[in-house]
Structure formats: structure tokens, C-alpha cells
Automatic annotation (TrEMBL):
It comes from Methanotorris igneus (strain DSM 5666 / JCM 11834 / Kol 5). One of its GO terms (molecular function) is pyruvate synthase activity. It is an enzyme of class 1 (oxidoreductase). Gene3D superfamilies: 3.40.50.920, 3.40.50.970. The lineage of its organism: Archaea, Methanobacteriati, Methanobacteriota, Methanomada group, Methanococci. Residues 15-240 form the Pyruvate flavodoxin/ferredoxin oxidoreductase pyrimidine binding domain. It catalyses: 2 oxidized [2Fe-2S]-[ferredoxin] + pyruvate + CoA = 2 reduced [2Fe-2S]-[ferredoxin] + acetyl-CoA + CO2 + H(+). It comes from the Archaea. Its EC number is 1.2.7.1. Residues 264-364 form the Pyruvate:ferredoxin oxidoreductase core domain. GO terms for biological process: response to oxidative stress. Pfam families: PFOR_II (PF17147), POR_N (PF01855). This is Pyruvate synthase subunit PorA. Heterotetramer of one alpha, one beta, one delta and one gamma chain.
Amino acid sequence: MCKVKVITGTSAAAEAAKLADVDVIAAYPITPQTTCVEKLAEFVANGELDAEFIKVESEHSAMSACIGASATGARTFTATASQGLALMHEMLFIAAGMRLPIVMMNANRALSAPINIWNDQQDSISQRDTGWIQFYVEDNQETLDTILQAYRIGEHEDVLLPVMVNLDGFILTHTVEPVTIPSEENAKAFVGVYEPKHAYLDPDRPITQGCVGVPECYMETRYAVEKAMENAKKVIKEIHDEFAEKFKRSYGNGLIEEYNMENADTVIVAMGSVCGTIKEVIDRLKEKGKEVGLLRVRCYRPFPAEDIAKALKDAENIAVLDKNISLGINKGALYLDLASTVRDKKVVNYIVGLGGRDIRIEDIEKIISHVEVAKDGETAWIGLKE
């Protein structure tokens, strides 16, 4: 039987890792992620989870330990945030290049300087080209559900890539919500036992891992990761649908979620917890007879270009909200990817919530009014002090 707990986002992530029956956890504390690995350490210490908990000296070491463990065929988990994720940068490429299905929870937090512990999504967006699948969740329930799905996705023989599940720091990590937790029996039946598709570090079937990639072979390895990313789109949909059938909870088609899109000429595109605020505004406007839609991008890498283009085919005004900024071009990453996909529409970029700046209902209403009169390709910083 499932049970309902009122817990934080980090606790939901820890519960998911426990349900996935991970073998190895390697982690280093960093705000606002720390409470996740503290909870996992508690599970291990009191015997609720039979796993090796490796205390390391840095986030770089945490990912290195996960890579070593995953290379032996162990199911691994780690968590980090902000500067910690940045410190892992070198090892993130290695995890993906070695095709290791590590799952990591990242508590989205602004990057320094100046030092800032509050939320935006610059940390994970800065890692978008490392070869990691990236999910952005809206609430704590989705955090748990997505981590369970992440193991199935990453370990799928057509994918074999690491997966990063991103949740907004403090907004989700430290806010309590009711979360339905599946029974261990049902969760384990869904996730399954990890059976490595390669004989990782098996002395009876020796292979070389992490060797030199000379020019004659390196390009092919990068192409293989790209093909795996493309394969992941189908796999994500299939596993999401299987999860929805089993647990009666769904998130669009697994890649994107559409909200009130049927009759909407104006559509907001966004990722993460801000989508809850946007839905509230949409509902209020609907009561007044104004139709506005939301397209929530749940999976950012691989980028679901085909699904996004189909969802936006009837939209006239598209407002893309970015909690990040690509400095030097004055655009956010989500906008840049979407604009390259949707070429015959008016698309306007809104930079919001950097460093934890509040995104208020009034801000969303202002964006909706602005996009209807703005020019294609404009960028507006919302909430910027003059």
C-alpha cells in the first residue's frame, strides 16, 4: 500500500532513491541540497537502506566515486547544487562519455559571484552540453516520481546515459507538500533490478574504460551520445506512460505538459516550480474570459523540439520564461533552443527570478500583456530594479 507524507522536496528525492534500492551514494553537503543526503545517511544508518554511503571531500570527488561505482555495475545516486554542480563539470562529461546511468538530484541555485544561495536555474543550464538527460520538476510529488523514472530511463539499453533531476532550491527543497509514496514492492517492481549492459570492470570479461580517444574514434563516441539522447525521447515517453498506468499520476507526455492550450493564442513556455504560479494566473484569467496557455518543458535535454513545435502550432504570441541568462547575447537558453525550433511565430524572451528574485502573480500578468504587443525576438528583464 502507498502512503502519504507531508515532506520537503529533498526528502522526496531521498525517498525515491531508497525506493530505487540504490547500491552506492556518494555526496558532499551544499545548501540547499544537504538535507537530501542527510536523510539518505539516516536511512543507511538505521538499516532502512542497504547501501554504501561514501563521505567525500568535494563534489568533484562525489561524482568520481559514483563513476567508479557505476562502472562496476552498481546503481548509484548523488545530489548537489550550484557551485557543487559546477565543480563536477569535468566529471559530468566523463560519466556521460562512459555511458554510466548515474542519477543525480540537483537543487537549482544561483552561481556566484556574488554569493547567492537562492534559486535560479543557471547551474544546471550551464551543464546542458555534458551529455546528461535533464528534467525540471514542478513540485515535490514530481520529484519522487521522476527519480523513479530516471533509473529506468538511464539504464535502458537504448539510452545508457546519466540523468539529472532538477528542483528549484528552497521553493521546493525546503517547502513541505503532501507526497504519495509507493510501496517498496510496487516501486521495486517498476524500477526493476539493474542489470548492466556492459561487463563493467569484470575480470572475467575485461574491457577498457576511460581510455584515450584518438581522432580516429573520438568523434564517433560523441555521435553515439547524441544518438542515445535522440533515443531517450521515445524511451522517456514510454516509461512515463508505464508509470502513469501503474501509479495513476502523469506529467503530460513525459517530455512536455500542456495546460489550457486548446483555445489559447498567447502561450507561456517555462520550466520548474514557476509553472504553478503561471497555472494560477491562467485560471484567474480564464474566469474573466481570457484564454492563455502554458507549455511546461519537463525534459530540457534531450530537447523535445518536435513536441514543442506541434504544441505551439496555433499560438500567436509565445512568451518564454528563463531563470538563466546567456551573457553576451542577452537571451536565456530555453528561448534560444525554442526560437531555433519555432521559426514562424512571434517569440519573446523574459528573464525572470535570477538569484531568487520573486516571480509574482503581477509579473506573470505583466508578461502576458507585454507579449501581445511586443516585437518578435525582444528580451525583457522582469522585476529588474531601476
